[in-house]
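Bench notes, afternoon.
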Amino acid sequence: MSDSDYSMIFKRKSFHRYLGTGRLEQEELQEIERRWRHFTPLLEGIQTQMRIVPRTQTTCKRGEYCILLYSEPAQGYLENVGYMGEQLDLWLASRDIGTCWYGMGKTMDAAPPGMEFVIMLSIQKEEPQHFRRDVTKARRKPLEELWVGQPWPKVASVVRYAPQRLQYAALASSVPGKRTAGTADLGKARYDAR
């Protein structure tokens, strides 16, 4: 993980409600598309694609645009997309583009040939002051509720600031009776823990 990505873990936050009225320029959208091709996959050889569409072409109710993530179905593909998507999420935060992972969203477009739609992120340009500035004010579960076995404090302190729902994935995914997250979420947490 680059130093830039690491610092963005503490800046990024999920924008369940966008606070600004910023608009993304066409050049920014093109840069997002170019950047996707340079993210490191967790599993080599699984083809992925992304599309950026206006929010109105999806069931999403927030943001200006949605990023649609697709993958060819293969063993580990959901975790792979989550891993790459987390790199995208952190990179977007570095450009003051707010995100919200929208796992229940649907797209009106057909998936590219040989691909499956996996997940979408809503996005919108935000003012820098709308991002997280003080991680100590973030609401997070206590480590004792998340971690099973001997904790790794340095890893836990980072993964705890990954998107809220997926905190459980890396820390308690195999424990009966504990809340778990989806497989794509495991990929996101895995990238943050690197």
